[in-house]
Design brief:
Helix content: 25-40%
Family: Belongs to the aldehyde dehydrogenase family.
Order of helices and strands: EHEEHEHHEEEEHEHEHEEEEHHH
Strand order of the largest sheet: 5-8-9-4-3-10-11
Distance between the termini: 63 Å
Keywords: Oxidoreductase
Protein name: Aldehyde dehydrogenase domain-containing protein
GO biological process, one term: aldehyde metabolic process
GO molecular function: aldehyde dehydrogenase (NAD+) activity
Shape: elongated
Radius of gyration: 27 Å
Largest sheet: 7 strands, mixed
Amino acid sequence: MFSYFNPALNPRRCHPCFTGNGRVGRIVMAAAAKHLTPVVLELGGKSPVVVDSGIDLQIATRRIIAGKWGCNNGQACVSPDYIITTKDCADKLVDSLKKELETFYGKNPLESKDLSRIVNSKHFSRLTKLLDEDNEVSRKIVYGGERDEANLKISPTILVGVPRDSLIMKEEIFGPLLPILIVRKIEDSFDMINSGTKPLAAYLFTNNKKLKEQFVASVSAGGVVINDIAMHVAIHTLPFGGVGESGTGSYHGKFSFDAFSHKKAVLYRSFMGDAAMRYPPYTQGKLRLMKAFMTSNFWTILRTLFGRS
Protein backbone atom coordinates (compact mmCIF):
# COMPACT_ATOMS: atom_id res chain seq x y z
CA MET A 1 0.00 0.00 0.00
CA PHE A 2 1.37 3.41 -0.91
CA SER A 3 -0.32 6.80 -0.80
CA TYR A 4 1.89 8.92 -3.05
CA PHE A 5 3.23 12.11 -1.52
CA ASN A 6 2.89 14.90 -4.07
CA PRO A 7 4.46 18.18 -2.88
CA ALA A 8 2.32 20.02 -5.44
CA LEU A 9 -0.73 19.15 -3.36
CA ASN A 10 -1.59 21.07 -0.21
CA PRO A 11 0.85 19.46 2.28
CA ARG A 12 -1.54 20.16 5.14
CA ARG A 13 -4.10 17.87 3.51
CA CYS A 14 -1.65 15.13 2.55
CA HIS A 15 -0.76 12.24 4.86
CA PRO A 16 1.41 9.64 3.07
CA CYS A 17 1.16 5.98 4.06
CA PHE A 18 3.91 3.71 2.79
CA THR A 19 4.41 -0.04 3.12
CA GLY A 20 7.78 -1.33 1.97
CA ASN A 21 11.44 -1.31 2.91
CA GLY A 22 13.35 1.16 5.04
CA ARG A 23 15.34 2.61 2.14
CA VAL A 24 12.25 3.90 0.36
CA GLY A 25 10.62 4.71 3.69
CA ARG A 26 13.40 7.19 4.42
CA ILE A 27 12.81 8.86 1.04
CA VAL A 28 9.09 9.22 1.78
CA MET A 29 9.77 10.58 5.26
CA ALA A 30 12.37 13.05 3.98
CA ALA A 31 9.96 14.39 1.35
CA ALA A 32 7.23 14.79 3.96
CA ALA A 33 9.61 16.43 6.45
CA LYS A 34 10.13 19.39 4.09
CA HIS A 35 6.49 20.28 4.71
CA LEU A 36 6.31 19.03 8.32
CA THR A 37 3.74 16.52 7.09
CA PRO A 38 3.11 13.44 9.28
CA VAL A 39 3.59 9.99 7.78
CA VAL A 40 2.63 6.37 8.44
CA LEU A 41 5.44 3.96 7.56
CA GLU A 42 5.05 0.18 7.78
CA LEU A 43 8.48 -1.20 6.96
CA GLY A 44 8.76 -4.84 7.97
CA GLY A 45 12.04 -6.11 9.39
CA LYS A 46 13.45 -9.30 10.85
CA SER A 47 10.49 -10.79 12.71
CA PRO A 48 11.62 -13.54 15.11
CA VAL A 49 9.86 -16.71 16.23
CA VAL A 50 10.81 -18.09 19.64
CA VAL A 51 9.95 -21.77 20.12
CA ASP A 52 9.89 -23.15 23.65
CA SER A 53 9.87 -26.83 24.62
CA GLY A 54 6.82 -28.62 26.02
CA ILE A 55 4.36 -27.39 23.37
CA ASP A 56 2.19 -29.09 20.76
CA LEU A 57 4.98 -29.10 18.18
CA GLN A 58 2.83 -30.22 15.26
CA ILE A 59 0.37 -27.35 15.66
CA ALA A 60 3.20 -24.86 16.20
CA THR A 61 5.01 -26.15 13.12
CA ARG A 62 1.92 -25.95 10.92
CA ARG A 63 1.26 -22.39 12.06
CA ILE A 64 4.86 -21.38 11.38
CA ILE A 65 4.64 -22.88 7.88
CA ALA A 66 1.34 -21.10 7.20
CA GLY A 67 2.82 -17.78 8.35
CA LYS A 68 6.11 -18.23 6.49
CA TRP A 69 5.67 -20.17 3.25
CA GLY A 70 1.87 -19.97 3.14
CA CYS A 71 2.06 -16.16 3.17
CA ASN A 72 3.38 -15.64 -0.36
CA ASN A 73 6.44 -17.87 0.20
CA GLY A 74 7.85 -15.57 2.87
CA GLN A 75 7.24 -12.39 0.87
CA ALA A 76 5.08 -10.69 3.49
CA CYS A 77 5.96 -7.93 5.95
CA VAL A 78 4.98 -9.99 9.01
CA SER A 79 6.49 -13.23 7.74
CA PRO A 80 8.80 -15.03 10.23
CA ASP A 81 12.40 -14.13 9.44
CA TYR A 82 14.20 -16.55 11.76
CA ILE A 83 13.55 -18.97 14.61
CA ILE A 84 15.24 -19.05 18.01
CA THR A 85 15.08 -22.23 20.10
CA THR A 86 17.15 -24.37 22.45
CA LYS A 87 19.40 -27.24 21.42
CA ASP A 88 17.16 -29.93 22.89
CA CYS A 89 14.20 -28.62 20.90
CA ALA A 90 15.94 -27.82 17.60
CA ASP A 91 16.17 -31.34 16.17
CA LYS A 92 12.53 -32.10 16.97
CA LEU A 93 11.47 -28.80 15.43
CA VAL A 94 13.42 -29.43 12.22
CA ASP A 95 11.99 -32.94 11.88
CA SER A 96 8.48 -31.61 12.38
CA LEU A 97 9.02 -28.82 9.83
CA LYS A 98 10.30 -31.32 7.25
CA LYS A 99 7.36 -33.64 7.78
CA GLU A 100 4.69 -30.94 7.57
CA LEU A 101 6.33 -29.17 4.61
CA GLU A 102 6.26 -32.43 2.65
CA THR A 103 2.61 -32.89 3.62
CA PHE A 104 1.73 -29.41 2.33
CA TYR A 105 3.98 -29.08 -0.74
CA GLY A 106 4.94 -32.66 -1.64
CA LYS A 107 8.35 -34.21 -2.23
CA ASN A 108 9.11 -31.69 -4.99
CA PRO A 109 7.83 -28.33 -3.75
CA LEU A 110 9.05 -26.52 -6.88
CA GLU A 111 6.26 -28.27 -8.75
CA SER A 112 3.62 -27.38 -6.16
CA LYS A 113 0.90 -25.00 -7.31
CA ASP A 114 0.54 -23.85 -3.70
CA LEU A 115 4.07 -22.41 -3.51
CA SER A 116 4.31 -18.78 -4.63
CA ARG A 117 6.94 -17.56 -7.05
CA ILE A 118 9.57 -14.99 -6.10
CA VAL A 119 8.22 -11.61 -7.17
CA ASN A 120 10.90 -10.87 -9.80
CA SER A 121 14.39 -11.80 -10.99
CA LYS A 122 16.01 -9.05 -8.92
CA HIS A 123 14.70 -10.52 -5.68
CA PHE A 124 15.51 -14.04 -6.87
CA SER A 125 19.15 -12.95 -7.27
CA ARG A 126 19.11 -11.25 -3.87
CA LEU A 127 17.87 -14.44 -2.15
CA THR A 128 20.42 -16.53 -4.04
CA LYS A 129 23.14 -14.19 -2.80
CA LEU A 130 21.99 -14.70 0.80
CA LEU A 131 22.31 -18.46 0.37
CA ASP A 132 25.62 -18.45 -1.47
CA GLU A 133 27.58 -16.03 0.70
CA ASP A 134 31.10 -17.55 0.92
CA ASN A 135 29.49 -21.02 1.00
CA GLU A 136 29.23 -20.55 4.78
CA VAL A 137 25.47 -20.20 4.71
CA SER A 138 24.62 -22.85 2.11
CA ARG A 139 26.46 -25.47 4.18
CA LYS A 140 23.95 -24.83 6.96
CA ILE A 141 20.99 -25.95 4.83
CA VAL A 142 19.25 -28.94 6.43
CA TYR A 143 16.21 -28.94 4.16
CA GLY A 144 15.34 -27.52 0.74
CA GLY A 145 17.54 -25.05 -1.09
CA GLU A 146 16.36 -26.06 -4.59
CA ARG A 147 15.98 -23.25 -7.11
CA ASP A 148 14.31 -22.80 -10.47
CA GLU A 149 15.46 -19.49 -11.89
CA ALA A 150 13.41 -19.82 -15.08
CA ASN A 151 10.18 -20.01 -13.08
CA LEU A 152 11.42 -17.78 -10.23
CA LYS A 153 10.87 -20.47 -7.61
CA ILE A 154 12.86 -21.34 -4.49
CA SER A 155 11.76 -24.24 -2.34
CA PRO A 156 11.13 -23.85 1.41
CA THR A 157 14.61 -23.80 2.91
CA ILE A 158 15.61 -24.42 6.52
CA LEU A 159 19.08 -23.56 7.82
CA VAL A 160 20.49 -24.31 11.27
CA GLY A 161 23.31 -22.41 12.97
CA VAL A 162 24.04 -19.74 10.36
CA PRO A 163 26.69 -17.18 11.39
CA ARG A 164 25.18 -14.22 13.24
CA ASP A 165 27.19 -11.81 11.10
CA SER A 166 26.07 -13.30 7.77
CA LEU A 167 23.95 -11.34 5.31
CA ILE A 168 20.97 -13.62 5.90
CA MET A 169 20.94 -12.49 9.54
CA LYS A 170 21.53 -8.81 8.75
CA GLU A 171 18.95 -8.21 6.04
CA GLU A 172 15.23 -8.82 6.04
CA ILE A 173 14.96 -12.09 4.10
CA PHE A 174 11.51 -11.54 2.56
CA GLY A 175 11.56 -14.99 0.97
CA PRO A 176 11.37 -18.75 1.64
CA LEU A 177 14.60 -19.04 3.65
CA LEU A 178 14.26 -19.72 7.38
CA PRO A 179 17.35 -19.80 9.63
CA ILE A 180 17.15 -21.45 13.06
CA LEU A 181 19.42 -20.10 15.81
CA ILE A 182 20.30 -22.04 18.96
CA VAL A 183 20.44 -20.52 22.46
CA ARG A 184 21.44 -22.11 25.76
CA LYS A 185 18.17 -21.22 27.48
CA ILE A 186 15.03 -19.79 25.95
CA GLU A 187 15.22 -16.53 27.93
CA ASP A 188 18.46 -15.71 26.06
CA SER A 189 16.35 -15.17 22.96
CA PHE A 190 14.95 -11.93 24.40
CA ASP A 191 18.38 -10.27 24.52
CA MET A 192 19.18 -11.60 21.05
CA ILE A 193 16.05 -10.01 19.60
CA ASN A 194 16.55 -6.69 21.39
CA SER A 195 20.19 -6.49 20.28
CA GLY A 196 19.02 -5.97 16.69
CA THR A 197 16.63 -3.54 15.03
CA LYS A 198 13.05 -3.57 16.30
CA PRO A 199 10.92 -5.99 14.26
CA LEU A 200 7.45 -5.42 12.88
CA ALA A 201 6.22 -8.57 14.62
CA ALA A 202 7.56 -10.98 17.25
CA TYR A 203 6.20 -14.46 17.86
CA LEU A 204 6.46 -16.86 20.81
CA PHE A 205 5.29 -20.46 21.11
CA THR A 206 5.08 -21.59 24.73
CA ASN A 207 2.77 -22.88 27.44
CA ASN A 208 4.74 -21.07 30.13
CA LYS A 209 2.66 -18.19 31.52
CA LYS A 210 5.68 -16.43 33.05
CA LEU A 211 7.58 -16.65 29.77
CA LYS A 212 4.64 -15.11 27.91
CA GLU A 213 4.58 -12.18 30.30
CA GLN A 214 8.35 -11.68 30.07
CA PHE A 215 8.22 -11.77 26.28
CA VAL A 216 5.45 -9.19 26.03
CA ALA A 217 7.12 -6.92 28.60
CA SER A 218 10.72 -7.11 27.38
CA VAL A 219 10.64 -7.53 23.58
CA SER A 220 10.14 -4.29 21.64
CA ALA A 221 8.23 -4.91 18.40
CA GLY A 222 5.39 -3.43 16.38
CA GLY A 223 3.14 -6.32 17.43
CA VAL A 224 3.40 -9.53 19.44
CA VAL A 225 1.57 -12.83 18.91
CA ILE A 226 1.66 -15.77 21.30
CA ASN A 227 1.26 -19.28 19.85
CA ASP A 228 0.43 -18.21 16.30
CA ILE A 229 1.81 -16.29 13.32
CA ALA A 230 0.51 -13.10 11.67
CA MET A 231 -3.05 -13.46 12.99
CA HIS A 232 -2.97 -10.04 14.67
CA VAL A 233 -3.06 -8.43 11.22
CA ALA A 234 -6.58 -9.82 10.66
CA ILE A 235 -8.02 -8.36 13.88
CA HIS A 236 -9.31 -4.85 13.18
CA THR A 237 -9.51 -3.95 16.88
CA LEU A 238 -5.71 -4.21 17.18
CA PRO A 239 -3.39 -1.47 15.87
CA PHE A 240 -1.03 -2.57 13.13
CA GLY A 241 2.28 -0.78 12.70
CA GLY A 242 5.97 -0.79 13.45
CA VAL A 243 8.40 0.81 15.84
CA GLY A 244 11.88 2.17 15.14
CA GLU A 245 13.31 0.58 12.01
CA SER A 246 10.06 -1.31 11.38
CA GLY A 247 8.02 1.86 10.96
CA THR A 248 6.02 4.61 12.60
CA GLY A 249 2.30 5.05 13.14
CA SER A 250 -0.40 2.38 13.12
CA TYR A 251 -3.67 1.67 11.38
CA HIS A 252 -6.49 -0.90 10.86
CA GLY A 253 -10.07 -0.38 11.99
CA LYS A 254 -10.59 2.73 14.10
CA PHE A 255 -6.82 3.14 14.31
CA SER A 256 -6.83 4.01 10.59
CA PHE A 257 -9.38 6.78 11.24
CA ASP A 258 -7.25 8.07 14.12
CA ALA A 259 -4.03 7.87 12.09
CA PHE A 260 -5.37 10.10 9.32
CA SER A 261 -7.36 12.49 11.51
CA HIS A 262 -6.21 15.54 13.43
CA LYS A 263 -7.57 15.68 16.96
CA LYS A 264 -8.42 19.38 17.26
CA ALA A 265 -8.96 20.59 20.82
CA VAL A 266 -11.89 22.98 21.25
CA LEU A 267 -12.88 24.67 24.56
CA TYR A 268 -16.02 26.75 25.08
CA ARG A 269 -16.27 29.02 28.15
CA SER A 270 -18.81 31.50 29.49
CA PHE A 271 -18.12 34.84 31.17
CA MET A 272 -19.08 33.45 34.57
CA GLY A 273 -16.66 32.47 37.32
CA ASP A 274 -13.66 34.63 36.42
CA ALA A 275 -10.89 33.97 38.96
CA ALA A 276 -8.94 36.94 40.30
CA MET A 277 -5.91 34.79 41.12
CA ARG A 278 -5.14 34.51 37.37
CA TYR A 279 -4.22 38.15 37.18
CA PRO A 280 -1.45 40.36 38.62
CA PRO A 281 -0.36 41.32 41.14
CA TYR A 282 0.70 37.77 42.08
CA THR A 283 0.69 37.83 45.87
CA GLN A 284 1.76 35.07 48.24
CA GLY A 285 -1.89 34.42 49.02
CA LYS A 286 -2.69 33.90 45.32
CA LEU A 287 0.35 31.66 44.96
CA ARG A 288 -0.74 29.47 47.91
CA LEU A 289 -4.26 29.24 46.51
CA MET A 290 -2.98 28.30 43.04
CA LYS A 291 -0.78 25.55 44.51
CA ALA A 292 -3.73 24.25 46.51
CA PHE A 293 -5.87 24.05 43.36
CA MET A 294 -3.10 22.33 41.43
CA THR A 295 -2.71 19.66 44.12
CA SER A 296 -6.50 19.36 44.56
CA ASN A 297 -6.04 19.78 48.32
CA PHE A 298 -9.53 20.71 49.50
CA TRP A 299 -8.58 21.65 53.08
CA THR A 300 -5.66 23.81 51.95
CA ILE A 301 -7.99 25.62 49.55
CA LEU A 302 -10.43 26.33 52.40
CA ARG A 303 -7.69 27.49 54.77
CA THR A 304 -6.26 29.78 52.10
CA LEU A 305 -9.65 31.26 51.28
CA PHE A 306 -10.28 32.01 54.97
CA GLY A 307 -6.78 33.38 55.51
CA ARG A 308 -5.56 30.53 57.72
CA SER A 309 -2.75 29.28 55.52
